[in-house]
């Protein structure tokens, strides 16, 4: 069986379970379950702390895992990213009291508090900055107020908690993170698990495409077909079928979901009618 690590809690857990369910995999029914077997798909899921997943995968005990890019890099584990998943996006940045620093060059000689010591220490060394790093678990916003550090480095999503603490971000982002699929570095592609790993990745890629595109159907006059096809080129090309009424055709194509309304407006302007969009639940490209 393919052995897969899945986040057991936090911002990664729910979206990861939803994506796996959409990909056709059985998921746990109760949060207390730490392991389940999906016999139909020959997969065994292990629900682990997101911060520990890279360690388990790097050991070779588990074949692949879902975790955050920030957690993978911070762990310094021998595992690598093989597929970005597009959820749990965040930016990792420095923050301090207003006016205390403008860029990373202002951190020389200062102390930085963070829960991601590995990421921050490497970033400072790579940037040639001599600064101290203090590791704290949990919220680090109070580190400056309590005098533990002059600067913090943390995940920033909306920035509300930083502003509430009287802090502001500065400099360029340290890194941008999102949920990813990881695998042990140097994993043998001839391994017996490889076909199932590739099948797993294809399923998740299918979910990503299904979330990104919608299917669009419409009717248009033959003389407007080229203009319509230019608006809806599809992936390879659209499907075009003649209608019973002479001079009309039906067109079907995949279009980006975020552009669907604009495309519908443009199609209507050139004379297309009966324009419909349909959600895509699964696909293979």
What does this structure look like?
With 285 residues, the protein is of the alpha/beta class. 27% of the residues lie in helices and 33% in strands. The strands form 3 sheets. The protein has a 6-stranded mixed β-sheet. Strands 8-7-9-6-10 form a 5-stranded mixed β-sheet, with helices on one face. It has a 4-stranded antiparallel β-sheet with strand order 13-14-12-15. Strand 13 (239-242) and strand 14 form a beta hairpin. Helix 3 (69-75) crosses helix 4 (117-126). The longest helix is centred in the last third of the chain and has 19 residues, at 194-212. It is globular.
What are the SSEs and their pairings?
Blueprint: E1 2-7, H1 13-22, E2 35-38, E3 43-48, H2 53-58, E4 64-68, H3 69-75, E5 79-84, E6 90-96, E7 111-114, H4 117-126, E8 132-135, H5 142-145, E9 151-156, H6 160-164, E10 168-177, E11 179-184, H7 194-212, E12 213-221, H8 225-231, E13 239-242, E14 248-256, H9 260-269, E15 273-279
Parallel strand pairs: 1-3, 1-4, 7-8, 7-9
Antiparallel strand pairs: 2-3, 4-11, 5-11, 6-9, 6-10, 12-14, 12-15, 13-14
Helix pairs in contact: 3-4
EC number: 2.4.2.17
Protein name: ATP phosphoribosyltransferase
Family: Belongs to the ATP phosphoribosyltransferase family. Long subfamily.
